[in-house]
Amino acid sequence: MAISLIACKSQKITEKSNTPSPSTTIAAPVADQGQWLAGVVATMGGWSTLKTSGSLSVKGGGKSFSSAMQVRMVRDEVIYISLRPLLGIEAGRLVIKGDSLFVINKLQKLYMAEKVSLLTAGVPATVGMMQDLFLGRAHIMGQGSLNASRQGQVEVAVDGSKRLVKPKAQPRDFSYAFAYDEDKHILSLDVKLAKGDAAYSMTYGDVRRTLAGSIAHSIKFNTDVKGKPVGLEMDYDQISWNEAVDTQFSVPANYKRQDARSLMSLF
User: Fold this and answer.
1) DSSP string covering 15-40, please?
2) Contact of 100 with 116, CB cutoff 8 Å
3) pTM, full prediction
4) In angstroms, rounded to a whole number, what is the distance separating the alpha carbons of residues 179 and 190?
5) What is the DSSP secondary-structure string of 105-121?
6) Which residue, of 20, 97, 211, 231, is most buried by count of CB atoms within 10 Å of its CB?
7) Tell me, what DSSP letter sits at residue 153?
8) Among 211, 217, 237, which residue's Cα sits nearest to residue 47?
9) Kind of pairing, strands 100-105 and 110-115?
């Protein structure tokens, strides 16, 4: 009996040692992959406009800034973030339109106008892509949000308790992958340059089912701006969809333009 127990125990140890560790990335079963990915696509609802409030904080270069905010978006057109740090009075704006970024400081009459790729460490970006980043929606860079017609362009791999969704054909200069939990809630996005350095990353939390699908209501955005690390955090309140929104803005003629390296001085 003793010999038999020892043999059984030895067999269990041997079987356990052949099991991949949780950190090992392996291909998901093909049959499960398509079904699970279709479930992710099903969580991606359509929308035309967005309106919400919440809070924003920015850290970088030894400085930090926190503020209440109001957010408005028109899909594939504009992101308008109004910064209201005290008594609901607008002190500044962050606007992304097309492939351009504007940061406006109303108190000091300063502004910055740059390509939005300033926020993505040089990786090409558009307003539509930034909307997906800020809402926690998987997308194919240069094409748009993940949907049924683009489902065949991505693949799924298993990494411990996470599933990685990534394009089958990666760009030449960088690679990227979205991480989900088994319940199809987005967890993160990591973008790495071809030379191995991280370009930027997103971490998502508080994913809620809304009229426009599953949306992350808490995001953390870590990036590099002109060689300096910058972190941005945003938390949204209840989101209103498909209502009329005002996103008109202009830079006053008497404002002084700042260099991109002075981004944090505008907060």
Assistant:
1) HHHTSPPTT-EEEPPHHHHHHHHHHH
2) yes
3) 0.85
4) 8
5) ETTTTEEEEEEGGGGGT
6) 97
7) G
8) 211
9) antiparallel
**Number of other residues whose CB lies within 10 A of the CB of residue 251:** 14
Phi and psi angles of residue 145, each rounded to the nearest 5 degrees, phi first: -60, 150
CB 136 within 8 A of CB 207: yes
Tens of pLDDT along the chain (267 residues) come to 343 444 444 443 333 333 333 334 444 444 478 888 999 999 999 999 999 999 999 999 888 999 999 999 999 999 999 999 988 899 999 999 999 999 999 999 999 999 999 999 999 999 999 999 999 999 999 999 999 999 999 999 988 889 999 999 999 999 999 999 989 999 999 999 988 788 999 999 999 999 999 999 999 999 999 888 999 999 999 999 999 999 998 988 999 999 888 887 777
Among residues 116, 153, 124, 160, the alpha carbon closest in space to that of 138 is found at: 153
